[in-house]
Amino acid sequence: MTSMKSLASMASMANMADDKVDSDISQSSHSGHSMISVASSLYLEMVPFNLRGRAEWWELRREEIKICEKIAEGSNGIINKVKWRGSECVVKYLRHNDNDIEYEDLINEISVISHLRHPRLVLFLGACTLNEPLMLLYEYMPNGSLDSYYSRMSHKYSKIWKPTPKYMYRWIMELTQAIYFLHNCYYPIMHRDIKPSNILLDDDLHIKLTDFGLSRTIKRKHDIYKMSGCTGTLRYMAPEILFNNGKDYNLMIDIYSLALNYWFIATGKRPFNEIDKNPHIIHLIKEGFRPNIGDIPDNIDLKRLITRMWDTCPEMRPDIKEVFDEITIITEKIEKDDMNASATSRKCTIM
Question: Would you call 79 helix, strand, or coil by DSSP?
Fold first, then answer.
């Protein structure tokens, strides 16, 4: 078993290594980004996982977590609202710990999210790993997922609901900020499962991205990631994953998924809604079949950007910096037009 002395030695080595990545951290901090050093995590990977929580200070005492009502339940996992040290939080845990794939995803989620801090990522507060069930503790997001929020609003108004331009562009920008941060970490991170049910809303209807169970860290931004089998959610999955057996892809898969999420945010419709009844649509996707870009409210710049982002060829898609820059220009123009319209309205009222 690794001694506390050796853990302290590793921490000291990690602090020395941190100096090498200061420039990367300072680059991200100018836009509100911060990241716990990846260099530290590389040393701590030498520590057995059941001790790593103590070494990294995220291992929690299970008795401090008071389970309250259930929020969501799937075939493999459960999310409960809890009380922890006087605060409302949520815990995520498996229904059965003997499912190796789901268990590995939770371990991977801890390994990724425990080193990340950003205003557009749901805050990881810690985990219980020393006993079963394995539990992950997160901040509570009172307005639930974007997916469920749209469903509630559609039910309320008895029609497909879509947000006002204010919220539409806010959510598109905030989601872009989350991916911009992930793709520009010291070792870039592919989320690999960007979808409305993994985008959560806080009290003030600002969004935060969650669920890093499928995320992967790559050594260099343009590296090709190789694996066997498909991953992610079918309707948001890039063609190169669908049709290449999940092999040979890179950060561009997130750009494709981002485009479909933009389309959902703008229209209130699920992309490829026919996919459940007609699996052959998957093959049409390979040939370039996409949701109707004309359904997006009139903004030619946004439509052009989305069309480029969901291109079948990954090399033709813009990277996240270009996406971020273009979304910034689009949103600033919308805000300026709104200000001018308000000023004109006030002037007419006075006259």
Answer: strand
Which positions ≥6 away from 147 have C-beta within 8 Å? 195, 196, 197, 199
Catalytic residues: 193
**268 Cβ partners below 8 Å, 6+ apart?**
150, 154, 160, 161, 162, 163
Contact call for residues 307 and 263 (beta carbons, < 8 A): no
Closest by Cα among 134, 146, 144, 57 to 91: 134
Q: Name the residue among 102, 174, 163, 87 with its Cα closest to residue 133.
A: 102
Once rounded to an integer, what is the mean pLDDT over residues 259-280? Answer: 88
Each residue of 235-255: pLDDT tens digit?
A: 899 999 888 765 678 999 999
Tell me the per-residue pLDDT of 101-158, one tens digit each, with 9 for 90 and over.
777 888 888 888 888 999 999 999 999 988 888 889 999 999 999 999 999 999 999 9
Residue among 34, 24, 324, 303 at smallest CA distance from 174: 324
191: tokens are: 């989320």
Write the single-letter amino acid at 110: I
Neighbours of 303 (CB within 10 A): 18
Check if the beta carbon of residue 55 is closer than 8 Å to that of residue 10: yes
Which residue ranges form the domains of the chain, and what is each CATH number?
4-139 (3.30.200.20), 146-337 (1.10.510.10)
Q: How far is CA 128 from CA 3, 133, 280, 324, in A?
A: 21, 8, 43, 36
